[in-house]
Amino acid sequence: MLPKVSLLLLLVAALIGCGASPAAAFEEPYVFPPTRPEPYPMERRTYRSFAELADLLASNDTLVDPTGAVPPEDIPPPTPLTCGRRLPGTAHRVRCAAGPPLGGYVLEPPQPATASIVFLHGFTDAPWFYATFLRSALTAAPELFASVRVAAPLAPVYRNQSVFGERPSDFFAWFDAAAFLSTTLERLTDGADVATAEAALRADTAVDDRLGLFLSTRRVEAVIARERGALRTGGARGGGRVLLVGHSLGAAMATHIALVSRARLDGVIPMQGFVPAARTLLASKEAYNSGERRYAMELLGGGADRIVPAPVVEASARIVKDLLPAAARVKYTVQAGVSHSNFFSPGPEVKAVVGVLRRFLE
Ligand SMILES: *[C@@H]1O[C@H](CO)[C@@H](O)[C@H](O)[C@H]1NC(C)=O
Ligand SMILES: *[C@@H]1O[C@H](CO)[C@@H](O)[C@H](O)[C@H]1NC(C)=O
Which residues form a coiled coil (predicted)? Predict the structure, then answer.
């Protein structure tokens, strides 16, 4: 039986070889609703019923990348999840929670939780395949994660999005990044250096979906607060560590939250993402640069990433440092040879990511 084919679209895969949509420059300040001619993609749906969530997480579809940007050997195999059962190959149990704020699942560790990782997935129509990454990470270091929870909310759905001229599909995205992707980032996928990337991010003229960023920020803050509560009731003395980790568009979201939120965090690790809405933040001084937050932030780039190239990540780290000089220790590291997706499956790449998490957890 042929597996049902599902579109895999990691962040910005849509841009590669597309070149179609003309760059829309906006000189006017952002107003809501925006004044651009095309309809604003407000049609997002954040929560689904328990049955829909359970179905989604149980998906066992083989993924394909219609763009060809992700080599077939890098495409992760599916890891179907069953609510209430173990994550296959691990001692963690899948707890599904369809309602707010999580709208996703928690991986409960075998031992009382002393730490939690809030994990934000990337831009995709198949968010469930991130279970493969989580499984690879947990199995790479069972002792490290034996008392670590993982909370994985699913992003709001933008209905019937036609990306790449493929048949319309539902895409999960923390905010609408289409304008940014088709203007700023598109110019940076072809070997731009760090200075060029930084200038482009600072001068970014794309319309920021500030409402989407705001709503997802508030929701993730609520997830973070819940996780902190779960650690306290889990018996951790004085509360344990809560980390915010994201990949791709989820990393962009995590970066934004680190900049604007006062949520109590013990570390933020955006993997292969970027700083969204930099121009607005730089202009408005909206970031909370107080000394209250003393966490470290480590932005990870992949040396072989052609979707969000490492210089974009490094440039984002520079901007974040600028915005948060007093609040956080900001570091950029690059994992040599890592593409946008090849750390999903067991191997040296996922071990490198686990090595970074270990520094934050131990
Ligand atoms: C997922 O699909 C593969 C290949 O079709 C199959 O071997 C495997 O048993 C399926 N897993 C589950 C949990 O259904
Ligand atoms: C989905 O989008 C396609 C074109 O992109 C359109 O023809 C179709 O009517 C849309 N379907 C729904 C249910 O909105």
Answer: none
Contact present, 332 and 299 (Cβ < 8 Å): yes
Residue nearest to atom 10 of ligand 2 (CA): 160
Round the average pLDDT of the chain to a whole number and report it. 84
Q: Is 337 left (phi over 0), alpha (psi -120 to 50) or beta?
A: left
Of 277, 175, 178, nearest in space to 217 by CA: 175
Helices 310-323 and 249-260, packing angle to 10 deg:
10
Q: Is 3 in the pocket of ligand 1 (CB under 6 A)?
A: yes
pTM: 0.87
Question: Which ligand is closest in space to the CA of residue 57?
Answer: 1
- The C-alpha angle with vertex 208 and arms to 56 and 28, in degrees rounded to 5, equals 155
Lowest mean pLDDT: which of 175-184, 195-204, 228-237?
A: 228-237
Domains and CATH numbers, the chain: 50-361 (3.40.50.1820)
**Backbone dihedral angles phi then psi of residue 10, each to the nearest 5 degrees:** -75, 165
Report the alpha-carbon distance of residue 128 to residue 345 in Å, rounded. 14
Taking the chain, what is the end-to-end CA distance rounded to the nearest angstrom?
Answer: 46
